[in-house]
Amino acid sequence: MNALAQRLRLGAPAALVPLGAVAVAALVGALVMLAAGVDPLRGYEAMFRGALSVSNIDFAVAGFTAILAMSLAFAIPARMGEYNLGGDGQLVAGGIAAAAVALSVPGPAALLLPLCVVAGALAGGALASVSAPLSTRAGVPVIISTLLLSTPMVALASYLVRFPLAEEGSPVPQTPRLPDAAHLPAFPGMSYTNVGLVLVLLVLLVTVYVDARTPVGYEIRVAGANRGFAAYGGLSVPRLTLGTLASAGAVAGLAGAVIVMSQPFRFIDDALTAPGYTFAGVAAALLAGGRPALLPLTAALFTILSVGAAGMERDVDVPRQLGQVLQAVVILVLALRVLAARWMAARARRAAGGRA
Amino acid sequence: MTGSTASGTAHGSAAGAPPAAELRGITKRFGPVLAVDGVDLVLERGTVHAVVGENGAGKSTLMSVLYGLHRPDAGQVLRDGREVRLSSPLDAIAAGLGMVHQNFRLFGSLTVAENVVYRAEPRRFGVLDRRAAERRVEELSARIGLDVDPTARVDTLPLGVRQRVEILKALHRQAEVLILDEPTAVLTPGEVDSLFVVVRRMAEQGTTVALVTHKVREVLEATDRVTVLRDGVVTARLTTAETTAGEVVEAMIGRGLVPAVNPRGAVSGEPVLEVSGVRMPAAPGASRVQDVSLRVSPGEVVGIAGVSGNGQRELVETVVGLRTPEAGTVRLHGRDLGGLGVRERRGLGIAYVPEDRPGVGTAAALSVADNLALGHHRSPPIGRRGRLSPRAARTQAAELVRRLGVKTAGVAVPLSSLSGGNAQKVVLARELHHEAALLVVEQPTQGVDVGAGEEIHRLLLEYRARGGAVLLVSYEISELRALADRVLVMLDGEVAAELDAADATDEVLGAAMVHSAGATGGGER
Ligand SMILES: Nc1ncnc2c1ncn2[C@@H]1O[C@H](COP(=O)(O)OP(=O)(O)OP(=O)(O)O)[C@@H](O)[C@H]1O
Ligand SMILES: [Mg+2]
User: Fold this and answer.
1) Which terminal Cβ of chain B has fewer Cβ within 10 Å, N or C?
2) Which residues have a beta carbon within 5 Å of ligand 2, which is an ion?
3) Interval A227-249: pLDDT, tens
4) What gap in Å lies between CA B459 and CA B468, rounded to an integer?
């Protein structure tokens, strides 16, 4: 009883912050809608309906799958204090690799499905892995190298889909439709929601398990808390960096593979990056704040914001960009809080050491 | 608490004059922990006032209240008889207070001079006058005999030198009330002596000093009054001149001291550790090591004495695998450790208690249990076939916390909520629990109270009695004498002297440590 009360008291502020951030975002959204002459209640209702109504849920779950995967791609290295902002590149690498394999290897579904998925994960993982030695050997921060490596990868995929892998005669840059054997089996009665969701949920379970219940998960947390302490304990920071980045890239690559192996079963230029899965994933991971088990919740929230925004545009004529604005507001509030905490700590430190 | 002190400070408070600073009925809680409970403390002008007590008694918390870092839940702070409201250290500084913290608060990327004059810079044409700042540091350090290079970057300096910088910083500001929270934990006896000469001189000129320390010798030699805290309440107020070491200890820990006995002479068998010809050049942030050789046998404690920054840290880091020497070998049980990393060496039987507790020995944000698990997390009962049992980690942590008497609200709380001495016990508990063939310890009793210090000495001697080999780096001669069989003195990266512990008197060791005075502190270029 006493322990519970204590836990609640200690836990409350930390849990309140993300809720506060969401509340602020909701308020900002309401103000924007008011300014646009739209009843906020109707606006939000349209947003929820856009994501969750029977006719839209199928599509929304596919978005959820991608956003959840991208939130993992950010959250895994974030556990050791490294930030992966190259999700777009890794996502696209996975998608194009899966498409290439599907289009060039003939075979039955039993062979092709795992092959494509693995190819996607490997491609994403390989791209992200490059940032590990860049950081541990050359001192280039992961946050920068992942971001910088992302752009050329997106451009490369764009080239591939225009030339070597292009569908002949198509007006849009896209690959031909993948053979049936490379279509992920959809859930009964659904067309977008498929086995991909199961795969990503499995990855989530593994991540939560590794984080809390394995020596490696412990080592990653130690490295995130104090590098000096990690080195002193004999942990290999380079190896942990490589491991977390490779896993993160692999999850992003998996998401890319899942997208091209779902409706409409092709790699279409821009189709992977335009919906902003990476950004929504980063936001979801930040909102979950180092608690991997919360990712499904926060990913669901950002799915509603990004997928539901289209419904809102259709029903009440508020531009769908509002969804992205709200995501940005959530991140901004979280960042402001971190900055405020830093600022206060710095002020206290300065004060502790200085004369007024 | 009336009348002037027997030690005859020139400016002892005249009857009726208000004390320089006073705390009345201070209470401070951290969640369920009652850290300070209704404490009164009177700091009379021109006196040096010792604040002593066991680890976790509330000393740092009380001093932080006086310095405006913690807002008390109840009670008043008075300066010169008037109540002051301190909502931040800025207010405290404006009120003429200064503080040297137990955990340093320096800017690692700035130079010594920049840190010392920070926020009280000598200016020329509106910008920092670097030369003047450096001269100021040289002048201050010459005055108190603490050798520091004003142009060195702070993050390249060994801990003992950083401590000197903290002290210089406080002196530079010429606070009227100076709070020193364990300023001597990582200083050598000679440095401690010169610091106290300065403190005494400042007190004679009217500065009031509150000194937190665990060392009874310092209480007796440097202070006028003593306030003893236990579990957040004052248990004794003493006048130094009228008290004895025994009385102070008794008041602090509620019993007398039974110094650990050092039964020498059980050394046996092949050496556990053999270091031969280890050499490395000086580098930014690292002192040189010149051809050092030593061996430690089972059942033996080899002590390394010396002023901080004479190559001890570099030598130790070479042994544990955090640093690669330019030449020379390190052998464990006859096996060359060259090319092996920290993990392999730990696996072969090396445990290590590092000097830098916040930077290396612990992770402040992780729980006590997580801090105690490092190095044990891949072996039963915590780790088993690729799995880690958080429950086993908690159980083991609770057992270690109990065994070493760590004062903590539980094993799930972050390490940052522990007092300095209790965090030190966490490090020791973790490393002793390895039962490794070789235990490398730097400053094992830094920041722990006398009772716990005695207990730690006993644990280390038991370790040795079980056949363990211990390499001990300490700045405290009494500690070296209490524990070591042989003492090596390091000076400018060389072993300047090797003594049998029985011959290692204060005079002999003290002389060897500063043998050629010009060379001390020379490592921190
Ligand atoms: N930020 C905090 N959160 C929770 N508990 C704290 C915090 N700071 C101190 N405490 C607790 O308050 C008590 C007093 O701590 P304090 O640091 O004042 O002890 P101390 O007398 O300075 O000990 P030491 O000699 O070991 O430095 C301890 O039980 C400690 O665990
Ligand atoms: Mg303290």
Assistant:
1) N
2) B 60, 102, 419-420
3) 999 999 999 999 999 999 999 99
4) 11
Residue B375 and residue B380: Cα distance in Å, rounded?
11
- What is the spatial distance between Cα B300 and Cα A305, in angstroms, rounded to a whole number? 67
- Closest Cβ–Cβ partner in A231, A232, A354 for B118: A354
Confidence (pLDDT) at A356: 30
Q: What is the pLDDT of residues B54-64, one digit of tens each?
A: 888 999 999 99
Inter-chain CB proximity A225 and B366 less than 8 Å: yes
- pTM beyond 0.90: the answer is no
Atom of ligand 1 nearest to the CA of B53: 21
Q: Which ligand places an atom closest to the C-alpha of B52? A: 1
Using only C-alpha atoms, chain B has a radius of gyration, in whole angstroms, of: 23
Burial of A56 (0-12, 13-18, 19+ CB in 10 A): middle
Residues of A within 8 A of B91 (CB-CB) are 356
Query: What is the best residue among B36, B60, B181 to mutate for testing ligand 1's pocket, by most ligand atoms within 8 Å of CB?
Result: B60
Higher-confidence position of B337 and A351? B337
**The CATH classification of domain A19-355, taken from the options 2.30.31, 1.20.120, 1.10.287, 1.10.3470:** 1.10.3470
* B69 close to ligand 1 (CB < 6 Angstrom): no
Note whether A62 and A193 are within 8 A (CB): yes
Question: Could you give all domains of chain B from N- to C-terminal order, each with its CATH number?
Answer: 1-96+176-189+196-256 (3.40.50.300), 103-174 (no CATH), 273-514 (3.40.50.300)
Output the residue whose Cα is nearest ligand 1's atom 10: B417
What are the boundaries of each domain within chain A? 19-355
Residue B383, strand partner residues: B388
How many Å lie between the alpha carbon of A349 and the closest alpha carbon of chain B?
Answer: 7
State the pLDDT at residue B29: 92
What tokens appear for B176 in the block? Answer: 């009227």
Burial label for B466, CB within 10 Å (0-12, 13-18, 19+), is exposed
Instruction: Please give the pLDDT value at position B266.
Output: 57
